[in-house]
Amino acid sequence: MPRDTFTRRRWLAAVVGGLTAGCGGRADSPSTSAPTETTPSPTRQRVTPTATTPGDSEAMATDEAAPFQTGPADCAFDAGEVLDGAWPMLHYDAAGTHAAPETNGPTSFPLNERWTVSALESRVALPVADTDYVYFLAMDEGDGEAARTTLLCHDPLRNGEIQWRYQADAMPVGPPISAADVVYVPFGDAADVRIVALDRENGEPLNTYPLPGRFQGALSSVGASLVIPTESRYQVVDARTGRSCWSFSPNAVDATDSAGQHIRATAVGDGIAYIGTGFPDGAPTTQVGHLYAVDPSRAGTRWTVTLDSPVNRLAVDDGVLVATTGSGLVGFDAASGSRLWDTAVEAHVRPATLAMADRMAVYGTRRTLHGLDTATGAERWSLPFGVRGDVIFVGDVLYAVGRSDPTSQRILLGAVDVESGQPRWQQEIYDPIVDVMAANGYLYAITTDGRLFAFSSV
After folding, report:
1. How much is the pTM?
2. Cα(107)–Cα(103) distance, rounded to whole angstroms?
3. Which of 218, 345, 351, 385 is deepest in the core (most CB within 10 A)?
4. Could you count the other beta carbons within 10 Å of the beta carbon of residue 211?
5. SS3 of 146, please?
6. Residue ranges under compositional bias (Polar residues) (predicted)?
7. Alpha-carbon distance 11 to 28, whole Å?
8. How many CB atoms lie within 10 A of CB 1?
């Protein structure tokens, strides 16, 4: 099969081939500073777009002295709800809620396994779905030039039949996303990344975009905008053209205790980008973090807050911003940055378990799953279920992966009633699940052995 050839230090100047048609102990309560209202930051006009057409390897020049910088493109920055049938990113919507409409997945029980796909000897990971297809990456890891990745597109309504595949001689550094009829995939290594844009209907390459800086986290889509995070810069480009709209660099803010921190979590709500930072894990100084509410309409920040712990996860819903830290959860008024509540926990919060919907925030620890009222921070229920991976909302059902008995080796895929916290269904999976998502009426689970399971209601 023809494929694109990438190297870790140099990328081909043009995108070629790569397409083959298929067959169809309790911690102290976290403390925060009072939010600081900020005036719009000075801006610097950039003249070189971030995106490049194939054959153009020139990257955008930036001025690190300005926290907020504008680009030549004008992006609408409004994170709409996840479309019926879609789960466009690996873990979450742009707001970080992990919530999908009820029509996206099964909500009546029991569930049946409808179909399974596997990529033979490859390691399968990073599934996403739009309103029509499911995409995942099959990776053959090797040394240097031997690394190879295939992006597979499947039709869930045809029992997972392959629609097309795209192959590259590079490893992905994050999940693909589907936005505006285009599938974007970041390839390379964390320090040298190109984002490849593919036509979602046939997998044909459309463009490649270079990424200056060390890639951090995952791509996300906000309407027609594409959010590209690096360790030091939050960058937004037009998803249709790849031209830069604006960027924000936390370390360029005039605050001595913020220098050297990395972006660790992001969320978008009502046109505002919420960015959480902290020192890298293992750094000598780790017990400090910052939250920034960045408003592109005013070319600067609305407010900033200093915390006594790095930010691990963010989610915003119904005017409340929730952050998980090393010592618990903190709720903020999303508009003003005022602290509404904080909750200390007796055990470490699993970083990947924050989910929000309908004034409820759910998080997990090694032994327990908790549901909190986002208006007050009061606990509404708890369930003895040690979370091992993501939790997601599908209508009034919460899906989680973990163990009901921490001493057991049995990994369960469970469904919980959102209001009461009572279990509704569970299924033992012999190969540990690494991710779940809901789209196209199915609940999808991907396992460590590289299989993708599709479940639906009986």
Report:
1. 0.81
2. 9
3. 385
4. 24
5. helix
6. 44-55
7. 49
8. 10
For residue 84, the SS3 value is: coil
Q: Tell me how far apart the terminal alpha carbons of the chain are, to the nearest angstrom.
A: 39
Q: What is the DSSP letter of 68?
A: E
pLDDT tens column, 124-174? 677 788 888 988 888 876 555 567 888 989 998 888 899 999 998 888 887
Residue 222 counted as domain residue: yes
The boundaries of the domain holding residue 235 are 4-24+41-251+260-457
* pLDDT at 9 > cutoff 60: no
Rg from Cα positions in the chain:
21
CA triple 188-192-195, angle to 5 deg: 60
Judge whether 185 and 200 are in contact, CB under 8 Å: no
* Domain membership flag for residue 155: yes
CATH code of residue 336: 2.130.10.10
Is residue 307 predicted with pLDDT exceeding 70?
yes
Q: How far, in Å, CA of 201 to CA of 451, rounded? A: 23
What are phi and psi for residue 452, nearest 5 degrees? Answer: -110, 120
In whole angstroms, give the CA distance from residue 451 to residue 119.
Answer: 7
State yes or no: pLDDT of 205 exceeds 60. Answer: yes
Q: How many Cβ atoms sit within 10 Å of the Cβ of residue 157?
A: 12
Q: How many residues does the chain have?
A: 458
Q: Answer whether residue 32 is part of any domain.
A: no
* DSSP for residue 62: -
Burial class of residue 428 in the structure, from the number of CB atoms within 10 Å of its CB (0-12 exposed, 13-18 middle, 19+ buried)? exposed
Number of domains in the chain: 1
**Cβ atoms within 10 A of the Cβ of 261, count?**
25
Residue recorded with tokens 């890639």: 215
Residue 450's alpha-carbon distances to 122, 127, 162, 185, 270, in angstroms, are 7, 11, 16, 19, 37
The angle at the Cα of 266, spanning 260 to 269, to the nearest 5 degrees, equals 140
How many CB atoms lie under 10 A from the CB of residue 70?
A: 17
Q: Residue 381 and residue 370: Cα distance in Å, rounded?
A: 6
What's the CA gap between 227 and 223, in Å, rounded?
Answer: 10
Establish if 29 belongs to a structural domain. no
Q: Two tokens at 50?
A: 């971030």
What the block records as the tokens of 48 is 């070189």
Token pair belonging to 233 = 């810069």
